[in-house]
């Protein structure tokens, strides 16, 4: 493996800017690493659904040309990135992990894509995900599972398993994820990487293929807290093309990450959420979480226990609200304007073609959620289930408000267990849904949350995540805490957690 | 929570325009029943006087000036269509013979 793929995004950008290395060399090193370890649906990490070799090298060459012409480069110019395949790209296929969009070439770039390009970030390709970002293991992808670089027999989390695995396998130093119930944070936790779900409305959803519109949020994924902050700054900010985009300044997350790295959290009030632990949580996860809480105290934070009683109902409310929005959003896949069309042989009408296409184009989880949502929104059940879930959503937001009146941030484990074996929960939806127990409340309330590496569980040697939750538009607090924990652990471990991951040399060839 | 029958599942599949195989219907009926049993937990919460939240942000309508601006070309949009003809989407028959 080239030394370039081990460097952080911040280091790579500095080296490109100084002319120590060209953006083309940096990109080529990552393309070589992808060729070495990514493999295919059958073997290797399989983080990518599409690698855009020519486009990436051309984008890198353009950065080098701009530098040669004396242009000032942005803080991440020339740095490669892996883009979750649920975000539109005009020059690459966009599948959302679904057969129904196989081979689809969007006619436009998402705002996130455009901002990445404008910043001189080199998009290497599109990463694998659970179909329409619905799942916690990437097993719901129509194009094969992604494997966890820590143990190739285990899941990399989901839905953004491809993005998280690409970071953990050193195929890219940066990635974009999207988080509807934990799809950035849970993969980050189980791969030993950093994942941030910004405040809802913090990053534009224009060009993000919708799962549940009131919950979806794109965000940065990286191997270090500073890299995530630099990427956050590139993609966040108001977008007139998204009516739910917040027209307020982006919190200074880079300054917060730098301040946090100094390791002093004196005066910070941290709340441990009582309801997010105990039964159902793996012992090794709880042990690493307790260590992290002790570390926060040691760094000067004041730690108290906080109760958020309605979080217990978060999962139930989420699995009524989310499928309801999904059933409505996925109605657009009607075989008429884009994507798959099945059975249009002149003998069938539009409705029949629509049903055949959807029956063949959607996978099992998409069908389950469409059906659940159709049920929850049908007359006779609407008030009792969907309406009641919306009230519970209010109560969860109020729990957050009450908690944040007492403390600056809340903490919990990111997910109740470490990465589980591929296939173990694939046909047990309720067991699968439990993965998002801790992450869902922040999607329902819209506040900012993140997962940071917190060590390895004793029983299986797999990564555990520390989940940090901050109030709406206080995303900077996540970076402050994350960077403080990261620098303290780096001193303790002699480097990042990922340096303890297997090297994977040649596994994809 | 009433348990959900195979017939109800078939009806939902029709409403959702999902052509499901018989074994899929059987499998889904069991799973939906199990999931609905679990999410019915929301009904335990006393929330009669609580307003519903449909969205995380307290947004009302967002307006912009009504000014013309560039949009996608017909060619770029139709390039991704399953079938196109004469600069338009070609779709299967949408009206029955009797209509």
Automatic annotation (TrEMBL), chain A:
GO cellular component: glutamyl-tRNA(Gln) amidotransferase complex
SUPFAM superfamilies: Amidase signature (AS) enzymes
Xref: Pfam families: Amidase (PF01425)
Keyword Chloroplast belongs to the record: no
Enzyme Commission number(s) of this protein: 6.3.5.7
InterPro entries: Amidase (IPR000120), Amidase_CS (IPR020556), Amidase_dom (IPR023631), AS_sf (IPR036928), GatA (IPR004412)
Domain called Amidase: residue spans: 25-478
Root EC class: ligase
Residue ranges that the Swiss-Prot or TrEMBL entry lists as coiled coil: none
Stored Gene3D superfamilies: Amidase signature (AS) domain
Keywords: ATP-binding, Ligase, Nucleotide-binding, Protein biosynthesis, Transferase
GO MF terms, alphabetically ordered: ATP binding; glutaminyl-tRNA synthase (glutamine-hydrolyzing) activity; transferase activity
Catalytic activity entry: L-glutamyl-tRNA(Gln) + L-glutamine + ATP + H2O = L-glutaminyl-tRNA(Gln) + L-glutamate + ADP + phosphate + H(+)
Gene Ontology BP annotations: translation
Keyword Protein biosynthesis set for record: yes
Catalytic residues, chain numbering: 84 (charge relay system), 159 (charge relay system), 183 (acyl-ester intermediate)
Known partners and oligomeric status: Heterotrimer of A, B and C subunits.
Role this protein plays: Allows the formation of correctly charged Gln-tRNA(Gln) through the transamidation of misacylated Glu-tRNA(Gln) in organisms which lack glutaminyl-tRNA synthetase. The reaction takes place in the presence of glutamine and ATP through an activated gamma-phospho-Glu-tRNA(Gln).
Family in the record: Belongs to the amidase family. GatA subfamily.
NCBIfam families xref list: gatA
Designated name of the protein: Glutamyl-tRNA(Gln) amidotransferase subunit A
Organism (species): Jiangella anatolica
Automatic annotation (TrEMBL), chain B:
SUPFAM superfamilies the UniProt entry points to: Glu-tRNAGln amidotransferase C subunit
Top-level enzyme category: ligase
Documented EC number(s): 6.3.5.-
Molecular function in Gene Ontology: asparaginyl-tRNA synthase (glutamine-hydrolyzing) activity; ATP binding; glutaminyl-tRNA synthase (glutamine-hydrolyzing) activity; transferase activity
This protein's record includes keyword Ligase: yes
One Pfam family cited in the UniProt record for this chain: GatC
Function of the protein: Allows the formation of correctly charged Asn-tRNA(Asn) or Gln-tRNA(Gln) through the transamidation of misacylated Asp-tRNA(Asn) or Glu-tRNA(Gln) in organisms which lack either or both of asparaginyl-tRNA or glutaminyl-tRNA synthetases. The reaction takes place in the presence of glutamine and ATP through an activated phospho-Asp-tRNA(Asn) or phospho-Glu-tRNA(Gln).
Subunit structure: Heterotrimer of A, B and C subunits.
Family the entry assigns: Belongs to the GatC family.
Annotated HAMAP family: GatC
Protein name per its UniProtKB record: Aspartyl/glutamyl-tRNA(Asn/Gln) amidotransferase subunit C
Native source species: Jiangella anatolica
């Amino acid at each position: 493996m080239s030394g370039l793929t081990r460097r952080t995004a911040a280091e790579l950008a500095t080296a490109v800017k100084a002319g120590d290395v060209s953006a083309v060399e940096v990109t080529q090193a990552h393309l070589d690493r992808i060729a070495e370890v990514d493999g295919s649906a059958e073997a290797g990490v399989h983080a990518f659904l599409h690698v855009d070799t020519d486009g990436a090298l051309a984008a890198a060459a353009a950065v080098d040309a701009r530098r040669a012409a004396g242009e000032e480069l942005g803080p991440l110019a020339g740095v490669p990135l892996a883009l979750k395949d649920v975000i539109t790209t005009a020059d690459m296929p966009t599948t959302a992990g679904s057969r129904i969009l196989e081979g689809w070439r969007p006619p436009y770039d998402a705002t996130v894509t455009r901002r990445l390009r404008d910043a001189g970030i080199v998009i290497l390709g599109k990463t694998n995900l659970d179909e329409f970002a619905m799942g916690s293991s990437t097993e719901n992808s129509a194009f094969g599972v992604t494997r966890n670089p820590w143990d190739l027999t285990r899941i990399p989390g989901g839905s953004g398993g491809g993005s998280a695995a690409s970071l953990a396998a050193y195929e890219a130093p940066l990635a974009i994820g999207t988080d509807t119930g934990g799809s950035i944070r849970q993969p980050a936790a189980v791969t030993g990487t950093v994942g941030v779900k910004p405040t809802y409305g913090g990053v534009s959803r224009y060009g993000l293929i919708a799962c549940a519109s009131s919950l979806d949020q794109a965000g940065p994924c990286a191997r270090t807290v500073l890299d995530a902050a630099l990427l956050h700054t590139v993609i966040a900010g108001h977008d007139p093309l998204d009516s739910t985009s917040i027209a307020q300044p982006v919190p200074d997350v880079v300054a917060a990450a730098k301040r946090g790295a100094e390791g002093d959290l004196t005066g910070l009030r941290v709340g441990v959420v009582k309801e997010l632990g105990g039964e159902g949580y793996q012992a090794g996860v709880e042990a690493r979480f307790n260590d992290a809480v002790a570390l926060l105290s040691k760094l000067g934070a004041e730690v108290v226990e906080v109760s958020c009683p309605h979080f217990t109902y978060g999962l139930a409310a989420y699995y009524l609200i989310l499928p309801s929005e999904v059933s409505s959003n996925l109605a657009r896949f009607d075989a008429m304007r884009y994507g798959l069309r099945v059975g249009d042989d002149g003998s069938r009408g539009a409705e029949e073609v629509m049903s055949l296409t959807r029956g063949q184009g959607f996978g099992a989880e998409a069908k389950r959620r469409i059906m659940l949502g159709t049920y929850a929104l049908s007359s006779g059940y609407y008030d009792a289930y969907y309406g009641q879930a919306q009230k519970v959503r209010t109560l969860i937001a109020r729990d957050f408000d009450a908690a944040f009146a007492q403390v600056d941030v809340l903490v919990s484990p990111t997910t109740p267990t470490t990465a589980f074996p591929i296939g173990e929960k694939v046909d047990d939806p309720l067991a699968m849904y439990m993965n998002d127990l801790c992450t869902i409340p922040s999607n329902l309330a819209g506040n900012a949350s993140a997962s940071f590496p917190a060590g390895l569980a004793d029983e299986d040697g797999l990564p555990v995540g520390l989940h940090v939750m901050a109030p709406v538009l206080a995303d900077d607090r996540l970076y402050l805490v994350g960077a403080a924990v990261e620098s303290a652990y780096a001193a303790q471990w002699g480097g990042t957690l990922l340096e303890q991951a297997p090297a994977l040399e040649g596994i994809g060839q | 929570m009433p348990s959900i029958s195979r017939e109800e599942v078939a009806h939902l599949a029709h409403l959702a325009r999902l052509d499901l195989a018989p074994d899929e219907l059987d499998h889904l009926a069991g799973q939906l029943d199990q999931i609905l049993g679990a999410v019915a937990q929301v009904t335990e919460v006393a929330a009669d006087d609580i307003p519903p939240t449909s969205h995380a942000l307290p947004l009302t309508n967002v307006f912009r000036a009504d000014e013309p601006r560039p949009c996608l070309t017909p060619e770029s949009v139709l390039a991704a269509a399953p079938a196109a003809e004469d600069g338009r989407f070609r779709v299967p028959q949408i009206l029955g013979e009797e209509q």
